[in-house]
Design brief:
Blueprint (H helix, E strand, L loop, with lengths): L14 H4 L4 E6 L19 E8 L2 E11 L3 E9 L20 E7 L12 E7 L4 E5 L15 E8 L2 E9 H4 L9 E11 L6 E5 L13 E6 L1
Parallel strand pairs: 1-3, 1-12
Antiparallel strand pairs: 2-3, 3-4, 4-9, 5-6, 5-10, 6-7, 8-9, 10-11, 10-12
The structure holds calcium ion.
Length: 224
């Protein structure tokens, strides 16, 4: 979900911040995944799973794998959803988040504040492998003029299933990865619409009410 509500976060109590954050681990990758649609390359990871309400009568759920090495943080989203559709082909295109696709949002310094600061950034990737990316500003708002350099691929596995793989350079995240030490804030999200009715719905790992609000993000720990 892209936060058209980003001007309203102060109206929402940051309830998620009062709860213990969700936790996941990224496993050191002896061999970097090639982002070529091979799920077997991700079996070295400890996956997490989350699910949403059915859409168009189809169950929706996602399994996310995280790996890392000295160069990149790697994510893979294995998504089951309603019949797949995507319209947006333009980078940073409007309404890309209504397409079938994934999002991840990172709070590199794990400030867990409500402001979206320069260490915070997000990628939305639809099933056409088109991206809407943004980064926070000193004023605490997302800036879509920022364009990241992460590599990413999409493989359609069936009418209802797709795989998105991403490699985010640590230089972009702004951290030097250290096993057992490095932690970052993160949320993971799946967007989808029913192609028959246009009905939109999303589901995310951390159950955020307002996206681009790092106070509700979960935590990822790097393990070696
Ligand atoms: Ca952008």
């Amino acid at each position: 979900m892209f936060p058209m509500l980003w001007v309203l976060p102060m109206l929402f109590a940051p309830a998620a911040a009062l709860e213990a954050p969700r936790r996941m681990q990224a496993q050191f990758a002896a061999q970097a995944p090639r982002l070529e649609g091979r799920l077997t390359e991700w079996q070295q990871a400890t996956p997490i799973a989350f699910s949403g309400r059915p859409l168009a009568g189809h169950p929706r759920h996602a399994t996310v794998y995280a790996l890392w090495d000295a160069a990149n943080l790697y994510l893979a989203f294995d998504v089951y959803s309603s019949p797949l559709q995507a319209q947006v082909r333009e980078h940073d295109g409007d309404r890309l988040w209504f397409d079938d696709g994934i999002e991840f949002l990172i709070d590199a310094h794990r400030d867990r504040g409500t402001a979206y600061l320069p260490d915070d950034f997000a990628y939305h990737i639809n099933i056409r492998n088109t991206v809407f990316d943004d980064r926070g500003t000193p004023q605490g708002q997302p800036d879509k003029a920022w364009n990241g350099v992460a590599r990413h691929s999409v493989h359609i596995l069936s009418d209802h299933r797709y795989l998105v793989e991403v490699a985010v350079p640590w230089a972009e995240i702004g951290l030097t990865p250290v096993a057992g030490t490095t932690r970052l804030g993160i949320d993971l999200c799946v967007n989808g619409s029913d192609p028959a009715t246009g009905a939109y719905d999303y589901f995310d790992w951390c159950h955020l009410q307002v996206f681009h609000d790092p106070s509700g993000f979960g935590e990822m720990e790097l393990v070696g």
